[in-house]
């Protein structure tokens, strides 16, 4: 079942409203939640803290979209309202080739996954947007580096 750590721009909701919705979903029988993707661990962590304070006990799995193409990141921002940090866009801008841009995005996503897992996330959900290879590369890096 879906949840939105930064609020849902399309619905005009805040993180607090999304926590209220999550409480109702849990009461209705949801046994876990997968979040809209975020490129910010602190945003997800804050949302989980709010949810726990409101009585949410189900696992909340963070969503990650590997930012492997600047064009796609910018378009995704337009469609979802989920904003990438300037640091992500600057890192992607340093790439000389599409392959290098993908490697940078994979590293960003893997670092985010590791930070979330180290912070107590029960797992991560990778949004692929039909790009399996970068998602697999993220999984490989996380498998090699988590608790290494």
Automatic annotation (TrEMBL):
The record's annotation in Pfam families points to: MTHFR
**Which terms are listed as keywords in the entry?**
FAD, Flavoprotein, Oxidoreductase
Write down the chemical reaction(s) this protein catalyses.
Answer: (6S)-5-methyl-5,6,7,8-tetrahydrofolate + NAD(+) = (6R)-5,10-methylene-5,6,7,8-tetrahydrofolate + NADH + H(+)
Mind naming one GO cellular-component term on file for this protein?
cytosol
| BP terms from Gene Ontology | methionine biosynthetic process; tetrahydrofolate interconversion
Cofactors demanded by this protein: FAD
| InterPro entries in the record | FAD-linked_oxidoreductase-like, Mehydrof_redctse-like
The family annotation for this protein states:
Belongs to the methylenetetrahydrofolate reductase family.
Protein name (Swiss-Prot/TrEMBL): Methylenetetrahydrofolate reductase
Gene symbol here is: metF_1
């Amino acid at each position: 079942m879906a949840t939105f750590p930064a609020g849902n721009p399309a619905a005009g909701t805040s993180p607090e409203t999304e926590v209220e919705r999550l409480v109702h979903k849990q009461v209705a029988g949801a046994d876990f939640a997968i979040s809209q993707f975020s490129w910010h661990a602190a945003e997800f962590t804050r949302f989980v803290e709010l949810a726990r304070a409101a009585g949410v006990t189900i696992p909340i799995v963070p969503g990650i979209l590997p930012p492997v193409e600047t064009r796609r990141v910018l378009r995704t921002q337009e469609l979802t309202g989920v904003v990438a940090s300037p640091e992500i866009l600057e890192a992607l801008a340093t790439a000389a080739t599409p392959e290098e841009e993908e490697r940078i995005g994979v590293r960003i996503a893997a670092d985010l996954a590791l930070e979330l897992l180290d912070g107590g996330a029960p797992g991560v959900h990778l949004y692929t947007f039909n790009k399996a290879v970068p998602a697999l590369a993220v999984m490989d890096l996380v498998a090699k580096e988590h608790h290494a």
